[in-house]
Design a protein that fits this description.
It contains 18 helices and no strands. It is mostly helical. The chain folds into three domains: 6-190, no CATH class; 194-273 and 408-497, no CATH class; 282-393, no CATH class. α3 (47-67) runs antiparallel to α4, α12 packs across α13 (334-364) and α14 (371-393) crosses α15 (396-406). It is globular. The mean pLDDT is 86.
């Protein structure tokens, strides 16, 4: 069931109504039932995978808690480490089989063929379960939190199952922590008009990002990238910039709808995006982009590897490992690994060059506090990130060809007057809608960057202005989105991860 489908738009109000009507003690069971129904709308059989992961991590939490009661310290540590290892190995084995087995087998076959050895490994034609990477990481974080004694083990299986399967953030995040979401399941959420209105406005903005902006940007990206060998450098440059905003709006929209829908029911989910394209460095970008995943890798991989506690070289190695794994998390393909490696290399090189940059700033007497200097850093950061997005969207060979064309290395033209709207998948009308929508996105991000809460601002306005904004947003999405040139309730990009 997609957030931008008619089925969800009709069922969600009924879910909220039932949630507030039924007794407190039964609410978590109702949400658990609907969460599994929500997930089973894609493929009922894969709900068994989620249930298996839930059962493994639930039992591991109880076992880790019981191991803490052992009198002998060595035995306590041994048993706890064993239970954590079993939890991680079993869950990652499931993830590996469904997401990475064919990729790994194909890689082994290619490596052996390069060595002159012909081999044929079995391949399994399985459909990747929706959101398996998200709920697996969320369940594993619970195991680690219990192991570290950040929380007590949950003894109610159904409440824990709801934590893993909570439908607003189930298939594309944010990846919640047990210290936040699991505790809220025991809270009594009363109906609050202001909170509900705030959640609805956030959902409305999320639908605007997806149905209008992301889909209109996809017109350009798909049209140009699908025929990249026939395109000019200018067209590919425009499409590459458009993709940066397409994936931001697509993924950001899901997070906003998830946070908004959870807020309506009284749950507080973590912020997943914080104006990432206003970042002044690549490391700053990753503190603003997909925050739930970035912090997950920081807490459960980077820090256990040693973090920055063992010298610069070890720190840089840890950063590269984290970003290579992050790339592989996104997809079973080498171009995702290259994308992750590029973002890791950006940060390692940036930190290595920091002393030289500081010397250059002093020598040239550059005012680092000047708005122009900050703007330049934002543009450079966006450029670096956008180059890496090419390999996120295209294969390695395609990405190299696209970048070569953009750089002007191809022998034919870079720009001609043939770069009209129709050539890039747009009409005059869709271009105008896209421009207006983009400036709304830019204005919202500028306000957020400056610390202004747009939803709170809207809620403070007079009744006539509030309802004008409500109706404009709602009917704008209906007219330009649902009845636009591309609407087909397409899935969110991050569903494939």
């Amino acid at each position: 069931m997609l957030f931008n489908s008619l089925e969800f738009l009709l069922s969600f109000p009924l879910v909220c109504l039932c949630y507030y009507v039924i007794p407190y003690r039964a609410r978590y069971l109702f949400l658990l039932a609907f969460s599994y129904f929500f997930y089973m709308c894609w493929n009922p059989r894969y709900a068994l995978l989620m249930l298996t992961s839930t059962a493994i991590t639930f039992i591991s939490g109880l076992l880790i808690e019981s191991a803490d009661k052992a009198e002998d310290e060595k035995e306590r540590i041994r048993r706890k480490n064993m239970y954590v290892a079993l939890s991680f190995i079993s869950n990652l084995a499931i993830l590996f089989f469904f997401k990475y087995f064919d990729f790994a087998a194909g890689t082994v076959v290619r490596v052996l063929s390069m060595a002159g050895i012909q081999a044929q490994l079995p391949a399994f034609d399985v459909v990747l379960p929706v959101g398996i990477s998200f709920y697996t990481f969320q369940a594993l974080s619970y195991t680690m939190d219990v192991y570290r004694k950040d929380i007590y083990a949950e003894h109610n299986f159904f409440k824990y199952a709801l934590f893993v399967s909570f439908f607003p953030q189930l298939v594309a995040g944010p990846i919640e922590r047990s210290k936040n979401l699991l505790i809220q399941i025991n809270e009594k959420h009363k109906f609050d008009f202001e909170r509900v209105r705030s959640g609805l406005l956030l959902m409305l903005y999320g639908y605007f990002q997806k149905v209008v902006l992301a889909e209109y940007l996809a017109l350009v990206v798909d049209s140009v990238y699908n025929t990249y060998t026939e395109r000019t450098g200018f067209q590919l440059l425009v499409a590459t910039i458009c993709f940066a905003f397409q994936i931001y709006c697509d993924f950001g929209s899901y997070s906003n709808i998830a946070v908004g829908s959870a807020r309506i029911m009284g749950f507080r989910l973590m912020e997943n995006f914080n104006t990432p394209y206003f970042a002044v460095s690549v490391s700053d970008f990753w503190r603003r982009w997909h925050i739930s995943l970035s912090t997950w890798f920081r807490d459960y991989l980077y820090i256990p590897l040693g973090g920055n506690r063992k010298g610069k070289v070890r720190k840089w190695m840890n950063q590269m490992i984290v970003f290579l794994v992050s790339g592989l998390w996104h997809g079973a393909s080498w171009h995702f690994v290259i994308w992750g490696g590029m973002n890791g290399a950006y940060q390692v090189i940036g930190e290595w060059m920091r002393p030289y940059k500081e010397k250059a700033v002093k020598m040239l007497k550059i005012d680092t506090a000047a708005p122009s200097h900050k703007l330049l850093k934002m543009l450079v950061t966006f450029g670096l990130v956008d180059i890496s997005w090419v390999f996120f969207r295209a294969s390695f060979r395609q990405g190299l060809s696209i970048l070569k064309t953009i750089a002007g290395f191809r022998e034919d033209y870079w720009f001609t007057w043939g770069n009209n709207l129709q050539a890039m998948g747009l009409t005059l009308a869709t271009r105008n809608v896209l421009i207006v929508a983009f400036f709304i996105l830019l204005a919202a991000d500028v306000c957020k960057y400056r610390g202004m809460d747009m939803i709170e601002w809207v809620c403070r306005q007079g009744i006539w202005l509030r309802w004008l904004i409500y109706f404009s947003g709602f009917f704008g999405i209906i007219i330009f989105g649902v009845y636009g040139p591309r609407f087909d309730a397409s899935q969110f990009i991050y569903f494939q991860f």
